[in-house]
Amino acid sequence: MLGNQIQGGLGTSGALSHAYVQHPPLRCDIPDTQGLFYDDANKFLIAPTADRILYWKTILPTPSGPPNSDPVNEGPVLSVRYSLDHKVIGIQRSRHEIEFRNRETGETCSKKCRADSETVLGFFWTDCPTCDVILVKTSGLDLLAYEPQPHAFHLVESKKFNVSWYLYTHESRLILLASGMQCTMFTGYQFSAGGIVKIPKFEMMMSKSEANNKPVLAADDVYIVTVYGRIYCLQLDRVSMSLNLYRFYRDAVVQQCTLPTYSSRIAVSAVDNIIMVHQIDAKVVMLYDVSLDSYAPVSAPLPLLLRGLPINSRQVSQTADSQSSAYGGTIYGEGWNFLIPDLICDAENGLLWKLHLDLAAIAASSSDAPSILEFLQRRKSDPSMVKTLCLAIVRTIILERRSVPTVAKAMDVVLDSYTRLMKMGGAFPGVRRIHEQNQQSGSQPIDGSHVVSQESSPGTTVSPAVNPDHGSEAVDIYVQSNPGVEHTIDRGLLNINISSDSVDNTSDAVDKRQQAVGEASRPLSSGTMTQHGQHAGTVAISPIEMFQSVFTLVEDEMMGDPAYLIAVIIEFLRSVSKAGLKAPHNLYVMTATLLARSNRYAEIALFVSNKILEPCKELAMQLMELGLQHPPTRKLGMDMLRERGLHHDYVTAMLQDGYYLEALRYARKYKVITVQPALFLEKALAKNSAHNLAAVLSFFCEFTPSFKATSDFVRYRHILSEMV
Amino acid sequence: MGLSSAATGDGVQLCVFDLQRGQQEGQELDKILYFYPADCPILLQLSVIGLCEGIVTFTRIFSPEEDCEVIESEKHSHVFYQAETDIWMVLVVEKNKENELTWRCGALQGILKEAHSLFAMFHGPIRTLLHKQPSAELARGHLRTFLTDYLSDFNVGKKLQFPTYRDSLKERGTVQMLTVSREVALDVQSLATVLGSCLGNVTCQSLVLFEDLLVSTTLPPDDTLNLYTYAVLRLTPRALYSNASSWSYLRKGTSVSAGQTSSSSNGTTAGERPLLREKLSKGKDGFVAADFTATEARCAVPSTPILWFQQADECMHLCIYQHKSLTILLLVPASSVINGEEGITHVKKAMLENASQKIVTVEQKLTRGWGGENAYHVSGYRYLLVDPERRVSRASPPGKVTTLAKDSLLALNMLRQEVDLEKSRYKRGDPCHDKDFEVCIRTKNNAWVIAKISQGRELYMALEKGGETLLYASTAVEKFSNRYCEGAFSTD
């Protein structure tokens, strides 16, 4: 119910799913290209042709536009990686040679290895201070430094050991090098701007199927995942059909848990710090949120949905078949490659999809409000959506009259998150409008006319599995990577920091690095705009927003049960005070009104006296208003005015109640000259006592020297003379 | 005979009579609902009541709206209180030469008022009892046991000792509040919410006390006051302690009247003697209950008293839970408890399940913030602060008040008497408006005795060893007001 309310605007279908890809995809099916590559450091999707390199910047707002292109020499292409400053293109030409081309000057140079004793498994660019390129060979690592003049690379250091295959993601800056008979022995390095960190050697666990049959771990079965600035590694154990989850610390690699799998083929993505395990055979996704070291799935396994198809978009439930006919491919089809962190490249059809979480659906799938709020507050992909959802959840649980402790816990979550986010410096930079962009380009043809078969060159697609040319599993280089939250990854590693949400905390990051972060490390979203808006940019819900979007909205509907709402407000005030925040004054006004409506005047007095309702002018005025039916409450309001030093209002209120002599004394004591003498005189006259009128007149003659010149003086003196 | 022998010595008489009864000649005895001392000869009882009735009737000629409050005769003071329509309570105290003006009429009337309010809370209005049983046996039985138990609190040695000038910095009929920080107040309120939900759909009411001070209440002021008064008399840890320690004394002192009860009142079970000290104790489960049922052989479960709340107009079961210094009075609407004691047991269980953690936390926080029995002492001042509208007062700790000289206290007592008169005089003139006034008196022993009434709130203080000028006195009041009363007494 909740989900549907909120999803409405997104044109969602009602099909059950917690993750989806949004139509239209980026089309990258250009004729005559030799496969597709993914440069995870720059987030480029690269399609080489005979003499050019075509690439799409997948983080740009218009990923659907025509590709950029760079001329290159002809020749075979095994992989392509742009340098981090985009000045140099590195192209692996063969198992022994990598060519580097300066994009400005067109100069080229190449690095070769000894053809007899070693092969190049791959290479990548790094922002490590001592080197620029790491060359991964079967005999170890070569650390190369680049010199623009005269466009050459020189060897800085080489690390020697046997490597069967390797795994690297730019987002983690971590390289894992597999060795051993079963390829289960791992050496790891992190090449980050902070320097090089060697991870202690470790071994991954493999179950034995039978005695003497030792399975070999393949590169396909290991995934580096970066979530919450922590680095994890998932390893598929095909024999026991389970996934081992390891976490990397600076001085240790610790197995965290084992997750079940329901498919012999799996793939892993990370979307908004959620680990998505695609059970490809079963065609379902499982979501894990490891932030609190809980390894239970976030929700039930459900299929991946294709959203936003122009045709049939109203159809409630689309089967995989009808979806495939509409876009010309299959969900979890053969050609699907999962690019780190959250992209899917359909190599068969030349389409690039971005994975999304359906937060509304996830929210709707659980009735445990506090934990779902915690979950949502950790999400960063769509702050305004998260905010809307959270507010709706809080409203709903109040309207459903869930137990007060539950509601209290939920509000605690919201406010804790608010304080934490505010402490971290307010807004998040990564505000994204995911859906706008896709809707803009919604008119793109979907007839599939551009679907040029890629099967002709399977060996050069991004698919690591279908790459017979490259021997071993070196193709993995292409697949992994995404700069994301790199600086905190360092922190996680260097400090063995288990803190969860420090993704945006740049406290100890190097300046240079911060810059890099600012530009490149923002989590990739479906190639749409990022904004720096303070308010739109954060999932944090302030007490004022809680008041405006929760309490004022539920107030009318809660009229039948003000006691419950009052209890909820008290819990809210408690959360607010625990978090060291200030509650909006209007909430006090509302509380007093609710109490008065239930005839609980004694509690108003109690709450005012022990400052549960903090003194403020708004409340004072409301108490005076409510006090028209209940004089002691009016007195509370007057006292509050006095205590707040609101002398003018206090004097006016006393006058209204007919205490004109007291008001005069007070005005004299606190030099209140803003209240019109005529008001006092009127009151005195109303008493019909010449004595009092004379007293007030003479008071003003002394108190305000100019009074004698006013018409009031003349008028009332005349009246007085007639009275006497 | 414990009390009766005392009675002859102190000359105190307390009677309750109904002017709607016994109006035929020869049936005068029917008017009497209660008379203390019980062994007072009937003729004397009749003559006291006859005098009182005569005065009530006589004064009504002049003052049909306002009741007669007191008559001072050469040897006695008669203090009147019309508790319910035509049901009068009269306290007769004997004067002797030296203790003239040593008590204050208002304070004595406060006793009558308190006794009646408590009685009505436990047994309902006297008139209702009379309607229930026109022969008045029920009402008499209840009054006898209840008032006897109530008066036992004033037993000093063998005499009944009523408040004197020494108590002029005390105000009966008010609640003393504990001042707590906002954070703790929110915690307490959160606890009150949990307590309120112990019954599920129907909201329970609650009072929370720390030591002898009120922390929170969900009841209206009058009901809060009655229950608070009862709690401080019998239920708080200090009261329970003195229940236990005074046990043997009470056995000696008042066992006779208790004996009278069980023999003479048919239908009056021990459960209806809520003021009987020796029966109340704290059980292992933390609940305070009267374990009288052991003797009554009704059942092993102690019955929970049902109280009638006049302002809330509701009957509620009272469950008393105590954790260290914290006393929680949980009130369960009687109409919502279907199966009696079993239902109450259920509520208690729910309370322990839901609120235990919060109770412990709140008690810890309150203890941490608690300044001890001298917490509200302000050095140099002996004061009493009363807010009659909210029925709240705060005063210098009794231990500090005793340091005042007798002259200061006598002067203060007299001043209060005057202020009481002035207040009631002004109230008759203009009931809706508060009148501010201030009196500073220099006493024989060169102390200042001050009364200041502002916006309906009252401040009384005695300053010894102060300056000589009036300016000194008024500055002292101003300082006190600004620092401790948020400026309530410094508006002019």
TrEMBL record, chain A:
Residues 519-713 form the Mic1 domain. Residues 437-471, 504-531 are annotated as: Disordered. Residues 437-464 have a biased composition (Polar residues). GO terms for biological process: regulation of autophagy. Residues 36-149 form the Regulator of MON1-CCZ1 complex N-terminal domain. One of its GO terms (cellular component) is Mon1-Ccz1 complex. This is Colon cancer-associated protein Mic1-like containing protein expressed. The gene is LOC100193040.
From TrEMBL, chain B:
Signal peptide: none annotated. Residues 256-271 have a biased composition (Low complexity). GO terms for cellular component: Mon1-Ccz1 complex. Transmembrane segments: none annotated. InterPro entries: Ccz1, CCZ1/INTU/HSP4_longin_1. Residues 256-275 are annotated as: Disordered. One of its GO terms (biological process) is vesicle-mediated transport. It holds the Pfam family Intu_longin_1. Residues 15-124 form the CCZ1/INTU/HSP4 first Longin domain. It comes from the Eukaryota. Belongs to the CCZ1 family. This is CCZ1/INTU/HSP4 first Longin domain-containing protein. It comes from Zea mays (Maize). The lineage of its organism: Eukaryota, Viridiplantae, Streptophyta, Embryophyta, Tracheophyta.
